[in-house]
Amino acid sequence: MVQGVVARGKGVPVELVTVVVPEPGPGEALVKVQACGVCHTDLHYREGGINDDFPFLLGHEAAGVVEAVGEGVEDVAPGDFVVLNWRAVCGRCRACLRGRPWYCFDTHNAAQPMTLEDGTKLSPALGIGAFAEKTLVHSGQCTKVDPAARPAAVGLLGCGVMAGIGAAINTGGVGRGDSVAVIGCGGVGDGAVLGARLAGAATIIAVDVDPRKLQWAKDFGATHTVNAKDTDPVEAIRELTGGFGADLVIDAVGRPETWKQAFYARDLAGTVVLVGVPTPDMTLEMPLIDLFSRGGALKSSWYGDCLPTRDFPMLVDLYRSGRLNLDGFVSEEIGLGDVESAFGKMHEGGVLRSVVIF
Ligand SMILES: NC(=O)c1ccc[n+]([C@@H]2O[C@H](COP(=O)([O-])OP(=O)(O)OC[C@H]3O[C@@H](n4cnc5c(N)ncnc54)[C@H](O)[C@@H]3O)[C@@H](O)[C@H]2O)c1
Ligand SMILES: [Zn+2]
Ligand SMILES: [Zn+2]
Questions:
Q1: Which entry of 48, 128, 281, 297 is 20 to 30 Å from 56 by CA?
Q2: Neighbours of 285 (CB within 10 A)
Q3: Is the C-beta atom of 208 inside 6 A of ligand 1?
Q4: DSSP letter string, 260-314
Q5: Ligand 1, atom 18: nearest CA belongs to which residue?
Q6: Nearest CA to ligand 1 atom 33
């Protein structure tokens, strides 16, 4: 029995309650969580924007130490320092068999449920549920990384920061000298800024409606910033790219208006990547001729098209060698009882990531 943060219903403030975590069964791992970031997706869950499978055990951007493993687990062992992921690829689905495991349609999660004391099954956010002192996951959800790394920083690779870095590098395919614009500079958008910089983009334009967010984006490597509150971002991005638009525009907000901005702020035959997650009620209406005549690629990025086994250890090594500023995402370290107030701060814009430390 451990303490965990549970969302019981749509829009209802989260509660710290007792969670029953089973001993790991075949293929499962029990992880002692050391740090877990507060992601906008946790709030989406609480607001019923993902699905209605309440109650949710929130938290999914985490690092910790494997405490016990179930039968047949060979890839991790007790004592391993791991970053948790929500893409434990199956190796057998149609995507995996075609050599595209980052699209895996049958990713693994723990088979046994974690429950409330009365036996009510919990739905762990993204199959993780790491706002808890211990969590039960599939062993494939544990990626071993350098144990000297700071848990609060590298745990963020488990979701938002990886999604952003990957949206730029994997989905967007940023190359040396490219121009990139990122709309929405939260944890995900700034991950994209960092990824674009790592891949050698020459121009990196950060767009947000909050000046604090724009300053952070600059710290991560944005060459220009645009406050969409007082400047039309499409005009501004075009102006900053010789009148043409950027090679790649990433929508890290996920709303119809920001996606349209991304679409029109991109050069002919350029790429739009949608990494922000829209809610099911959102719709889009556009002249189809614009989609045809502007050409290029319109893509979505699920988890930055990452492969945890390939990308996490590599990114942690870059972090350890001072080439990837993951510490810059950790705005504050908080306690397990502070998640609800962290949602408030996220809304208010004062933080990039609040990270629960255990
Ligand atoms: N695709 C994936 O795999 C994946 C993974 C993690 C998170 N996400 C999603 O990415 C999105 C961003 O997550 P986050 O954790 O960075 O959230 P966040 O709240 O930290 O950041 C959102 C940012 O967008 C800015 N913003 C809001 N409206 C804007 C507008 N009209 N124009 C410009 N900027 C605007 C906000 O000021 C804020 O800085 C969320 O929708 C989240 O669910 C997607
Ligand atoms: Zn698969
Ligand atoms: Zn997340």
A1: 281
A2: 6
A3: yes
A4: HHHHHTEEEEEEEEE-S---TT------HHHHHHH-SEEEE-SGGG--HHHHHHH
A5: 186
A6: 208
- Closest ligand to residue 158's CA: 3
Question: What's the CA-to-centroid distance between 1 and ligand 1, angstroms?
Answer: 34
What type of residue sits at position 357? I
Q: Which of helix, strand or coil describes residue 350?
A: coil
From residue 276, how far is each of 44, 187, 273, 351 by CA, in Å? 11, 11, 9, 18
301-348 pLDDT per residue, tens: 999 999 999 999 999 999 999 999 999 999 999 999 999 999 999 989
- Alpha-helical runs (H) found in 9-146: 40-46, 94-97
What's the CA-to-centroid distance between 86 and ligand 3, angstroms?
10
Any ligand 1 atom below 6 A from CB of 4: no
* Ligand 1 atom showing the smallest separation from residue 300 Cα: 1
Separation of first and last alpha carbons in the chain: 15
Strands 224-227 and 115-116: unpaired
Please, what is the angle between helix 256-264 and helix 233-240, to 10°? 30
Nearest CA to ligand 1 atom 26: 184
Distances (CA, A) of 108 to 45, 161, 256: 20, 21, 32
Q: Which ligand is nearest to the CA of 206?
A: 1
User: CB neighbours (10 Å) of residue 357?
Assistant: 16
Question: Which numbered atom of ligand 1 lies nearest the CA of 254?
Answer: 41
Nearest to 304 by CA among 332, 258, 273, 346: 273
Q: What 3-state class would DSSP assign to 225?
A: strand
> One-letter amino acid identity for 263?
F
State whether the beta carbon of 237 lies less than 6 angstroms from ligand 1: no
Instruction: Supply the pTM of this predicted model.
Output: 0.96
Under 8 Å CB-to-CB from 204, ≥6 apart: which residues? 179, 180, 181, 182, 193, 196, 197, 221, 222, 223, 224
What confidence tens digit (pLDDT) does each residue in 129-152 have? 999 999 999 999 999 999 999 999
Q: Which ligand is nearest to the CA of 277?
A: 1
